[in-house]
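Note to self: keep these together.
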Amino acid sequence: MNNNVKSATTAGLLGIFLGAVGAHDWYLGNKTKGIIHVCLASSGIVLSIIASVVLPTALSYRALLTWGTVIALLGGLACLVMAGNGIWGFVEGIIILAQGDAGLARKGYAVAMPNMGYGQPMNNMNGMSGNNMQQMNNFGGNVMGGAQNGNSSQNNMQNMNNGGRQNGQ
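Structure:
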């Protein structure tokens, strides 16, 4: 499989489970958003370590009582940054899964098209010319009630089987 072909399932699951570090953005090639996710996750971890380990061990008991509110706010900020970043990645993963491969294709990503039997991609209409479509429309009109253009529904079925050629041509 080509490395440029992306899967919405893979990107969505990466977003759900590893969205906090931007794995889905790295997979899709969105380096800027991936860097933002990594920076937010890193800053949340660093703030958490400072608030829970560094400051309590570096300060005396009396200083801890004085700076306790600041330390608690710093720890709360760390939790808020990490939770917000994780929720952001999770929601992006859900959106990617909900939109599917068609959503990625609309955004310009190369996606693998599913096959609809006989090895033809789902959106391949190469064999359908305007004449074939007209014959199919005529056939549909005949089934719904009466012949169009003087042809019977049996003649239209024959036309469809002949690749859209008119009888006698």
